[in-house]
Structures are given as C-alpha cells and as structure tokens.
What we know:
The protein is mainly alpha-helical and 265 residues long. It is 84% helix and 0% strand.
Amino acid sequence: MNDTRTDDARGVGSKSADAHRPRTPIPFRRLLSVETRKLFDTRSSKIMTAGLVTLVIASIIGRGVVSGPELHTLVGTAGIGLGTLLPVLGILTVTGEWSHRTALTTFVLEPRRRRVLAAKCLPPLITAVAASLFAMLVAVPVTAVIAGVQNVPAGWEVAPLALLGWTGTNVLVVAMGLAVGMLLLNAPAAIVICLSTPILWAVVGRLGAVGEVLVEWFDLNTTVTPLMAGDMTGGDAARLAVSTIFWIVIPMTAGAVRVIHREVN
C-alpha cells in the first residue's frame, strides 16, 4: 500500500516537474518554413500564384507582339500584374490566421507574436524579389523570339539601376499590402484599399495645387517612379521616404502593436 502511494507521489512530482520545465523555443527557421508553406499551400494562394505566373507571361508576350522586342518595355509590363497580385498575396498572409480562426493555435504554439509576424512578413517580400527575377527571365527569351519572328533588331538596353529600382518597387508594394493587412486584419477591406489607392490619388491630384503636393509626397505609386527609372535624386528620395513612412512604417507598426496585444478568442 505504501509503495503504491509512493509511486503515485513520484508520478505527480514527475508531471509537476515536466509542467514547470522550460519549453525549448521553436527555431525561427522552422517558423519561417511553416509560414512559407502556409503562403503557398492554401487553395487561394495556389490560385493566386498560378494567376500571377500566367498574367506575367501573357502580359510580356502580348506587349512584345504589339510594341516590339524591347526588353525594358517588356519587363516593365510585367509590373502591372505584379503590382496588382503581389500585395493581395501579402494581405492574405497576415489576415489568414484571423479569417480562418487559427490565430489561437498559432500563438499557443509560439507565444512570442513578434517572431510569428516576422516569419509571416519575410516570405511575401522574398516572393516579390523572386517574381521580379522570374519576369526578367521570361522577358529575355520572349524578346529574342519576337525579334526573330518579326525580323527586327531586339532592344537589349536596360539600366541595371532601373532593374534594381523596379524590383525594389515590387518589394515596397508588397510591404504596403502587409502593412494595411496587418493594421485592418480584414482581407477584403485591405484589398479594396490597396487596389483603389491609384484611383483615389488621381482624384486628389485634380484638387488643385494642394492636391498635387499631397500626391507628390504621399502617393507611393508616384514617388516610386524615379526609383523605377533609376535616376532618383535627393528630393525624390525624400518624397519616397515620406510616402513609405505613411503607407508602410506607420500602419505596420500600429498593426504589429494591435496583433501583439489583441485578445484571441
């Protein structure tokens, strides 16, 4: 009888020790791997990725047939699809936990929410760089093929700074989607805001001198133009910094604070 009680006491003590034993922290690379799989494993993300690849290829080929084999023009044409779908991919990444009600599970497994947010933000930003490289790789053979079919010389002149600036623009556009999505935690609202801002800023630009100044300093689509052209000056950099703070830094900071302190039911 005493032996049984002793064994029971030992079992309780062992369970208590296990409960108070510090848990081994999840490595960040594992978090990054999980969030990357989430980015591409869901049905919506697969559709988005397939649509992105198709749109890039179709836009490059279509523009090449119409305007001729100019590499710079074809690469820039791919930015239409990238600028539309990449922000949506970023928005779905940071809002998916809340729309699918899996945030509780995620934050129980990794209570340090800052690390989870960092792991969520990196894959879309890296995807923006990879998508930019993919567009360049598609544009090169398309330029050569169209030049051969149309029997005209191909235009290969592309400024390296312009390519870097164009890639950086795609990264900034994705960062804007991440920031707005993190702030609102509502995918439809964030998508509407990101896709409608060019129209809204076009209206603001028609409001006179004040509207033109607001567009010049706060419209991210306007301030990235010198960056994509590869001829940014000090004034252009200042305007880009202001619009980046307004559309990315402030909403992402506010959204991160909201996510970190939000009660998960």
